[in-house]
Amino acid sequence: MSAALTVAAMLARGASHADRRVRRLMIAAAALATFFLLGAGNLLTIRGNTYSDWAGLVTEEGLRGGTALALALLVVPPLALLHQAGRIAQATRERRLAALRLAGATPREVRLIAAAEALRVSVAGAVLGVTGYVVCQQAAMAALSVERTARYAAPVWLVPLVVAAVVAAGAVTGLLASRHVLASPLGVSRRAHRPHPRAVALLPLGAGLVIMAVAAFLPEGPGVTLQFTGGAVTVVGMVAAGSRLVLESARLAARWARTPQTLLAARTLQADPRSWGRTLSVIGLVVLFGTGAGIIQADVLDDALRDDSSTDPFWLVSFTLVDLALLLALAVAAVALVVHRAEWLLESRRSLAALTASGTPVSALRRTAQRQALIAAAPVCAVAALTGLIGMGAFTVLVSEPTTFVAAWSLGRAVLMTLLGIAAASAVTAASRRLLARAASPEQLRTE
């Protein structure tokens, strides 16, 4: 591995501007993952219980576990971005990989070099994340006039554990990003074919929904336990079902397509639904959690309306923090989707250039890309919102009596989260307009 690190360092010194930009993106993703993971671990190490209107999620012992879980879940979008950036970095390194193969490197050694490069950026990102967390924590405690700062500070022994976890995750993502790409000594890359996702991928999602629905008819004690179990199964199912949902949506769109742009978009998704499903699953999780959080907000606001009282500042602060966290996760997932789009354009540039050379206007390709995003994102976001409605709706029935206000607010929140998820996916097209125009240029047809 030391030789791989040495070669990776040499390659980094000769990197192009595009490679350095991707590396900075990977460092930022690793820093975000470290920030959230260190925050989750720090919350679990705090002992004692105090009351605070503005920091109850941290000061109250009974709420720290849930807050730590939320922070741990926020690690998922940065890791998805790190993996996606690693894939595009792998695609842009084809020439160097071919040169290494000519020099005698085996495919295994090439993959180790890719993992070593991911390891280097993960270490840099982890150090940056730890530094940022300490600075932000000290600034927050100073702003809130916290006296016993040592009580809330992250213990020293936790830092190397978090750094090691993020670095290991970075190395694994580097290996995963390169496992389907083999570079021949002649510079020809071959991406291993993967079969379409099967319908069985939808079973965990359905099982989770059934478990949560059954929990609503049980006594509160075992019902709550079963509800959390169903929620965990549903989260796993949402990740597993993303690619299959994209595939089914593409098949339906291709069957009912009335324009060439829609048909091309659907057929492209049918050819490779996993790449879209992988990133859209993260957006789906954000939509799911956002819908569930909206139901909790509706329940609290309904209690305040019935009691004719103002909402406790603790809830207002908590709701604001949750919504900000959801928007941040959605933004990171959207960036990962932009990186995925850049990877696809890099791989498909000769096909796109051939379409342009044969007379297809770039504007038509842009409309195709827009419809591709809509076809892929709409079912994932809609199913995620419906899952959140059913899951948290069953939980609300279990612990309280929902009113018309709660139902209306929850439905509106589900629609809002669905639209936000689709808008985030559609914004990818606008963000990649220049990349599409460059990839579709007939100059890409030149043989180098």
From TrEMBL:
Pfam families (alphabetical): FtsX
Domain ABC3 transporter permease C-terminal stretches: 87-183
Entry GO CC: plasma membrane
Compartments reported by the entry: Cell membrane
Entry keywords, A to Z: Cell membrane, Membrane, Transmembrane, Transmembrane helix
Membrane topology, as annotated: Multi-pass membrane protein
InterPro entries: ABC3_permease_C
Superkingdom of origin: Bacteria
Transmembrane regions listed in the UniProt entry: 25-46, 66-86, 121-144, 156-178, 199-218, 224-247, 276-296, 316-339, 373-399, 411-431
Keyword DNA repair: no
Protein name in UniProt: ABC3 transporter permease C-terminal domain-containing protein
Originating organism: Thermomonospora cellulosilytica
